[in-house]
Amino acid sequence: MKLRTDHAPDYASANHRKHTHPNPLFRRMIARFNAQLLALVDQAAPASVLEIGCGEGFVLRYLAERRPGIRWTGLDLSAPAIGYARTLCPSSVMLGMGSIYRLPMPPAAFDLVICSEVLEHLADVPAALAELQRVGRSHVLITTPREPYFRILVRLAEWLRLGRDPGHVQFWTSRGFRRMLRQYFPAVTFADSSLYQLALGHR
């Protein structure tokens, strides 16, 4: 599969810095996270997947390269991020702009909806979860940082000048994350990946 690689070398965002950081510890954490995310995608066995808040497409590219038989779509609010994703992802991936609060899709449009590292930035989490459930036919896959460990690492990275505060407004411990998602889904499969927690909600 041939990828387009003509993305702008001076592009920068918090998500871009995370996925291109040269620190080997950061890279190992991202690699483990991606592998566990892929395992949950395989468990859902979807024919179509929508990633909400796909950013520059790093996760979407990883998944689409490994499961090319799935119909992949990515949405994000940022036009520059989507522009970058168009250069990074396989050409078969559909990309566009949209808000998690008002997704431009009909009900049950995708077998699986992925919302990775997004909810912690949102003021209205219940509204966002309602939209994820509306467009997801059978599964919704959600990931967030695992607290308080993530905030501890952020403070350390700031002190060492390795990173910046990501601007989170929601914070979930493992117990709080599980309690929240069990309110929205009749069955949930949970997984932890270093500083991140993952959940596959079954409709």
Radius of gyration: 16 Å
Main beta-sheet annotation = 7 strands, mixed
How big a fraction of the residues is strand?
15-25%
CATH topology: Rossmann fold
Strand order of the largest sheet: 3-2-1-4-5-7-6
The CATH architecture term is: 3-Layer(aba) Sandwich
**Proportion of helical residues:** 25-40%
Give the overall silhouette: globular
Report, as a whole number of angstroms, the end-to-end distance. Answer: 33 Å
Q: Provide the residue-averaged pLDDT.
A: 87
Number of helical stretches of at least 4 residues: 7
Q: Total strand count, please?
A: 7
Going by CATH, the homologous superfamily would be: Vaccinia Virus protein VP39
Task: Look at the helices and sheets and give the structural class.
Answer: alpha/beta
Structure description:
With 203 residues, the chain is α/β, with parallel strands linked by helices. The chain has one domain: Rossmann fold (3-Layer(aba) Sandwich). The protein contains 7 helices and 7 strands; from the N terminus they run ααβαβαββαβααββ. The protein has helices at 14-20, 24-44, 58-66, 79-88, 125-135, 149-159, 174-182; strands at residues 48-52, 71-76, 94-97, 110-116, 136-145, 187-193, 196-202. A 7-stranded mixed beta sheet has the order 3-2-1-4-5-7-6, with helices on both faces. Strand 1, helix 3 and strand 2 form a beta-alpha-beta unit. It is globular, with a radius of gyration of 16 Å. The N and C termini lie far apart (33 Å). The model is unreliable at 1-9 (pLDDT under 50).
